[in-house]
């Protein structure tokens, strides 16, 4: 073998070794034994432990976990790709909570901001980092949820977001899609973000029944909400018969439907996107994670942020599949999308359930 050929082979071998080394992510072992891809993330592990203990009762998927997720959305959506609508995912809703909790669309947010504020102050994080880390950690407590991305290093917020940037349950589908488009989201991403309602409950739409869940498996991050919104009997109340605008009648006792969820499930622009989520846990997880990754850095210069997603706990897997609640079946589905086949879903045995309010609401 000639020397030149040998030199070429050695060079190729070294290049291949370098490529393999580059493909293997570097890991850092923190002083407390946790492992991360970036040393700067080590400081977050004790903060995550504090958040779990002081906000989420030791890692529960409860009212506080959903409220933390809701807070991150209400914080970030105050943004426009055209400018002039706030700083996006900057934590302004926590830092300027007296201003932003007074907005009508932020009704009920005052409880979670009051709970988070002293914990936030003790951590030394910026408001934006705290709000969006707490949302990722709280969501991770819910079985079936994706492990959300967390980017670290947001600067402090400069000012409150303006009012009228958060879509409301009484808004039309056209208005909701337009507000999301103004923030940079397409209809598929809108439906994906509504996956959060699987662990949600209503407190302020009807204050006489606080903690009313949006689906029958409120402690699990699954596609049940996409199924149950379609059950027949879910209809808009007559305007003269309700004092709770935004609420939709549900055939399940103890359950609430948002007017906007029902409208989106029936609108030709979004009905098939809604139906495709049903009983497709992987689709829901993947699309929700991607949409949240986009939401949680709105208005931020991502070149200046550090990916610390590995400090977020790994959620327990979904044990599924979803089912029709007892006494319901496909004959009860109000199907708006006929272009695709409706998934085959079994029914739980027994009498029709009555759902209990979510504890802590």
From TrEMBL:
GO CC terms, sorted: extracellular region
Highest taxon in the source lineage: Eukaryota
Positions contributing to heme b binding: 197
Record carries keyword Signal: yes
Entry keyword annotation includes Transport: no
Marked site positions, Transition state stabilizer: 70
UniProtKB keywords: Calcium, Disulfide bond, Glycoprotein, Heme, Hydrogen peroxide, Iron, Metal-binding, Oxidoreductase, Peroxidase, Secreted, Signal
PROSITE patterns noted in UniProt: PEROXIDASE_1, PEROXIDASE_2, PEROXIDASE_4
Gene source species: Crucibulum laeve
InterPro entries xrefs: Ccp1-like, Haem_peroxidase, Haem_peroxidase_sf, Ligninase, Ligninase_C, Peroxidases_AS, Peroxidases_heam-ligand_BS
Annotated binding of Ca(2+) 1, by residue: 75, 88, 90, 92
Annotated compartments: Secreted
Disulfide bonds: 30-42, 41-308, 61-142, 272-337
Residue ranges annotated for the Plant heme peroxidase family profile domain, each copy included: 125-341
Signal peptide: 1-22
UniProt xrefs under PANTHER family: CATALASE-PEROXIDASE, THYLAKOID LUMENAL 29 KDA PROTEIN, CHLOROPLASTIC-RELATED
Protein's name according to its UniProt entry: Peroxidase
Family stated for the protein in its record: Belongs to the peroxidase family. Ligninase subfamily.
Cofactor: heme b; Ca(2+)
Residues noted as binding Ca(2+) 2 in the record, renumbered to the chain: 198, 215, 217, 222
Active site residues according to the UniProt entry: 74 (proton acceptor)
Documented EC number(s): 1.11.1.-
EC class (word): oxidoreductase
A molecular-function term among this protein's GO annotations: peroxidase activity
Gene Ontology BP, a term: cellular response to oxidative stress
Cofactor note: Binds 1 heme b (iron(II)-protoporphyrin IX) group per subunit. Binds 2 calcium ions per subunit.
């Amino acid at each position: 073998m000639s020397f030149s050929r040998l030199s070429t082979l050695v060079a190729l071998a070294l290049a291949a070794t370098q490529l393999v080394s580059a493909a293997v992510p570097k890991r850092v072992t923190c002083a407390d034994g946790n492992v991360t891809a970036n040393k700067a993330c080590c400081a977050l592990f004790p903060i995550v432990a504090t958040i779990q203990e002081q906000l989420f009762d030791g890692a529960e998927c409860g009212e506080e976990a959903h409220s933390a997720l809701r807070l991150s959305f209400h914080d970030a959506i105050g943004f426009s790709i055209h400018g002039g609508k706030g700083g996006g995912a900057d934590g302004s809703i926590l830092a300027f909570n007296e201003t932003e909790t007074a907005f009508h669309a932020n009704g009920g947010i005052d409880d979670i901001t009051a709970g988070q504020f002293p914990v936030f102050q003790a951590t030394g994080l910026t408001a934006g980092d705290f709000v969006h880390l707490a949302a990722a950690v709280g969501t991770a407590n819910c079985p079936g949820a994706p492990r959300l991305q967390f980017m670290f290093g947001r600067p402090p917020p400069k000012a409150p977001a303006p009012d009228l940037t958060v879509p409301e349950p009484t808004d039309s589908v056209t208005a909701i899609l337009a507000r999301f488009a103004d923030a940079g989201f397409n209809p598929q991403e809108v439906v994906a973000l509504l996956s959060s309602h699987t662990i949600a409950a209503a407190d302020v739409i009807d204050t006489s029944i606080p903690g009313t869940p949006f689906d029958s498996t409120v402690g699990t991050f699954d596609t049940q909400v996409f199924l149950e919104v379609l059950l027949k009997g879910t209809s808009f109340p007559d305007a003269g018969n309700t004092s709770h605008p935004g609420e939709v009648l549900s055939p399940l006792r103890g359950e609430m439907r948002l007017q906007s969820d029902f409208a989106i499930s029936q609108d030709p622009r979004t009905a098939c996107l809604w139906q495709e989520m049903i009983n497709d846990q992987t689709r829901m997880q993947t699309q929700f994670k991607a949409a949240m990754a986009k939401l949680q850095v709105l208005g931020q210069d991502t070149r200046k942020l550090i990916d610390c997603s590995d400090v977020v706990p790994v959620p327990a897997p979904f044990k599924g599949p979803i089912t029709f609640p007892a006494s319901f079946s496909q004959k009860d589905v109000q199907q708006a999308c006929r272009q695709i086949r409706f998934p085959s879903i079994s029914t739980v045995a027994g009498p029709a359930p009555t759902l209990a309010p979510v504890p802590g609401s």
